[in-house]
Amino acid sequence: MRMWKQFDSNEIYLTILIAFFFVVFFLLLRKKIFKPHITLLSLVWGFSVGILIEFTIGGGLLDFYRVNDSNSYEIMDLVYFLLFSPFGYFFFYFYHRFKINKKKVIFYVFAWAIVGVSAHWLFTQLGIITLQKGYHIALSFPIFLVIQTLSVIFYEQIKYRENIFQSPIGD
Amino acid sequence: MGFVFFFFVSWLVTVLFSVMKKSLSFVENIFVYLIILIVSVNWSWIIFEEFKFLELSRQPLDYTAFLINRSISIPLIIVITLNAVRSANVNGKAYLYVGLSTVILLVLVKIGNFLNITKLNNWNTMYDVLYFLSLHLIAYFSLQMFRKLKKEEVTMS
What we know:
The structure holds 2 protein chains of 2 kinds. Helices cover 63% and strands 4% of the residues of chain A.
């Protein structure tokens, strides 16, 4: 396990992206919508879902794409996986902010799936991931649809079971 | 055969977890499950794919059996054990649960070897024992940390 094979453009883009999204996360965090343990859970949710998918289809037997410069595990790969964690929080945050209900949920999941595919496309353009073994970016769409649908179920379940907001009305 | 067995095990632990009396809340159970999932996925990747201490079958069904065990059975067994440990009224009982859970996880490893899903290259069973015991400790301390965070919220408000 090494830091990186060669610190070039993809590592620079990755560093910029992770810094940017964590700044956005901390800015949103100032609104104090969710209780701290729910915020932590949303980060862990984003990170673990990312790790699970990346290590299942992005490596091993399927190995549909390469992260960074080599197929072996680099510290910068971990940085890439960490990129998923603020998105766990963003998903929760906007779900609450846009007051997503049964009528809006299809559009919300669809929109996030589009965001996910676009991010995947951007990562390929920046050289952060390289598609291989005939994998096409469109194949990420059903994966994101499933992930975002599970995220909705997850959010609704925790909201149903306990008070997740810092203030009584969640504002 | 390996796929059938490990699918059955994952189904069994999922049902056991669903029907058992839990001493952790829904959110706590999910949190611990996700933490163990992250460790399990990374650990298996590092020992199988990076250092190649063990060899993994490239047969699709065997490989799927491995994925099911890595992502469902192992984390859920740890979560079930943690629920049992937290409900134990004496320390001895808690240690017994951890020991039993470690033995079950080791048996699963051995069955994986027997069914040719995994093959030992440069590996010792003691490493597995240490790994599974560490998973229990990680689960325990992540729960403690999570509960501490929740408690601080109550104190602050």
